[in-house]
Design a protein that fits this description.
With 489 residues, this protein is an alpha/beta fold. Helices cover 39% and strands 15% of the residues. The strands form 2 sheets. An 11-stranded mixed sheet has the order 1-9-18-17-16-15-14-13-10-11-12, with helices on both faces. Strands 4-3-2-5-6-7-8 form a 7-stranded parallel sheet, with helices on one face. Strand 16 and strand 17 (407-409) form a beta hairpin. Helix 7 packs across helix 16 (448-467). The longest helix is centred in the C-terminal third of the chain and has 20 residues, at 448-467. The model has no long low-confidence stretch (mean pLDDT 94).
């Protein structure tokens, strides 16, 4: 997993490292990595020589990184212009280097721009862009390069205006996101939360991490971690020669109803794609499930289902007294439980919520934002990681807060983010597939936070493959899971 660090931790690490280096060396390392990435971008647009490069330069070290990188590009023949947003506070050494390399300071953007470096605000910025910077950033979409294509925007460390520790993006008075939208973000030393979570992540574009020697100086615990393919491969249960259906795990599903039989079918599809050896279904949609999946053992009630290693409850279950009784039966079982959709609505009843905090076996809840609001009485708002962690602590459960960058929070304060999300999954029934897959992973023996992280990662990949640039349905996602999981080996 890739660690993601808060601003205070990055600042402390930078201070420790700089104390061991000659003055200015850390900034030169950052600028070298930034210039290299810019040169690669320009190589696809006619080359560095004669390229039109605009530097948006704020005060402080972020502006210094930008000016020094601009100087390197100017020495390679680029026509580099710097627009200083705080002329009296621009980084002096960087400005001198730019001018010595042939760059110039301007008071307005040139007509033709191939590449823009966003060095307005770094990781110390708060509160979104100021009015002048916001207007300037909004105007960038009108500029085009030598090839007629829109100017490429490279953010320096983070897109200016984002809330770095939370990924929040404030709105301007005009109702626009008060931050720069980048095609590429070149970040230094460590990933920051705004690059991987919240609406800010969508503004960062492609993120490249430049190694400046910071890693040995990062102390304490990361703010969160990003799941990677290698993690999922390492966690995935492996079959031995003596494996049989019961040793692989049995997952039970109390999902669907006569009103919503599709939820039962889709959750079973997700479970069957997973690593367990047997699926037991309990509910009133059993005829629909058996028609589609005859290998499933189906009964009408949780009490009659037989022994399982994990339960999935809630998708399409309904919210009446009969559904509440099934949820109580699931919560009474001493096995891990996934609670989704209608089960979360039923948890708003305090007596059922209390049962969660008293359980010893793991629980995973899977709310989207509206379900989170019903459970908590408030929106996730600006800090999605903090919101997931608060709910996890209150419920004594792992929280999988669904979204474009799904966040997973644990009761003991650890957080993970999924990088494979896609808007294509914002369609009915895909959450049912996710719940079934998650239950299968729990029944196979994965710890709750790993099961949640792996399920979100694989579900996101399946969504991307099913979409293929077009519309997607939940059955498409369920079908795409199988070839995705086959690559796990």
């Amino acid at each position: 997993m890739r660690p993601v660090w808060r601003v205070a931790d990055v600042r402390a690490a930078e201070a420790g490292l700089m104390a061991t280096l000659p003055p200015g060396m850390l900034m030169k390392r950052a600028a070298a990595g930034l210039a290299r990435r810019c040169a690669l971008l320009l190589a696809d647009r006619g080359g560095v020589y004669a390229a039109r490069v605009l530097l948006l330069v704020g005060s402080g070290d972020n502006g210094g990184d930008t000016l020094l990188a601009g100087a390197q590009l100017a020495r390679r023949g680029a026509a580099v212009s710097a627009l200083l947003l705080s002329p009296g506070r621009a980084h002096a050494e960087g400005l001198t280097a730019l001018r010595a390399a042939g760059g110039r300071v301007v008071d307005r953007p040139p007509a033709t721009i191939d590449l823009v470096l966003d060095g307005i605000v770094g990781i110390g910025g708060i509160g979104g862009l100021r009015e002048t910077a916001d207007q300037l950033a909004a105007s960038l979409v009108r500029h085009r390069g030598r090839d007629g294509a829109p100017a490429a925007v490279v953010a320096v460390d983070v897109p200016s205006g984002v809330a770095v520790d939370t990924g929040h993006v404030p709105l301007t008075a005009a109702g626009r996101p008060g931050a720069v939208r980048a095609d590429v973000t070149v970040t230094f030393g460590a990933l920051k939360p705004a690059l991987v979570v919240g609406p800010a992540a969508a503004l960062a574009g492609e993120v490249e991490l430049v190694d400046i020697g910071l890693e040995p100086w990062l102390r304490g615990s990361p703010a969160l971690r990003v799941t990677e393919w290698s993690d999922v491969v390492r966690w995935w249960p492996r079959l031995g020669p003596s494996a049989e259906k019961y040793t692989r795990g049995v997952v039970g599903l109390a999902t669907g109803s006569a009103t919503y039989p599709g939820a039962a079918v889709l959750s079973v599809a997700g479970a069957l794609a997973g690593p367990t050896g047997l699926v037991r279904y309990a509910g009133s949609a059993r005829a629909d499930v058996l028609h589609r999946y005859p290998s499933v053992i189906a009964t009408g009630r949780v009490a009659d289902a037989g022994r399982v290693q994990a339960w999935v409850c809630g998708s399409g279950l309904g919210t009446g007294e009969e559904a509440a009784g099934e949820l109580r039966a699931v919560l009474a079982a001493p096995v891990p439980v996934v609670l989704d959709a209608d089960a979360l609505t039923l948890l708003v009843d305090g007596s059922l919520a209390d049962r969660l905090r008293d359980r010893d076996a793991p629980i995973v809840v899977t709310p989207h934002d509206r379900e989170f609001s019903r459970l908590c009485g408030e929106e996730p708002d600006a800090d999605r990681v903090g919101a997931a962690l608060r709910l996890a602590a209150w419920m004594n459960a792992v929280v999988l807060l669904k979204g474009d960058r799904t966040v997973i929070g644990t009761p003991d304060g650890r957080a993970y983010v999924n990088p494979t999300g896609t808007p294509a999954l914002a369609t009915g029934g895909t959450g049912d597939v996710l719940a079934g897959l998650l239950g299968s992973l729990l029944a196979a023996g994965l710890p709750a936070e790993r099961a949640a992280a792996a399920a979100a990662y694989l579900h996101g990949l399946a969504g991307r493959e099913a979409a293929g640039g077009g519309p997607v349905t939940a059955p498409d996602v369920a079908a795409a899971l199988r070839p995705v999981l086959a690559r796990l080996g």
